[in-house]
Fold:
Amino acid sequence: MKIEYFHASRFGNGAMVAEEFRRIMGIEDHEVNVQHIRQAKPKDLPPADLYVFSSPGRLGRPSGGVRRFLRNVNLPAGARYAILTTEIAPRPDKKTGEMPSVEEIEKWQRVRPVMTEILAPKDLTKVAEGCVFVTGLRGPLEEGWQKKVQDFAAQVSSVR
Structure:
């Protein structure tokens, strides 16, 4: 399978996730080309069996550059894609010490839903979605992040 992976890593976390994905998929003889969105032309993406789009979370949304990139993506109807993001890890409430519920997290972490909303009118086929948490503004990635990338790669590999 030929995969084109586009990320917008600013502090290197997304780039590390992309390289781990490439390494894992390479073991199964899948070809993965990784590019930063600044190096790609969204209206002229190379042909592939699957496109992976990745964005860091910025105030609970994809970065502005990723939103613009996705709005301009020009792919044939039915093209398959997946989303893998790097988002800030949920933290306990400072007053109560309780972790936020899934519903609370979904209110302020909208990176993947916004990316999906932007791509929905393009008549593409979403095959997988994943998230790797970042423990601080600039990193590092959460402990065990490689397992999350491995699970995402397994989802992608199962699509034929």
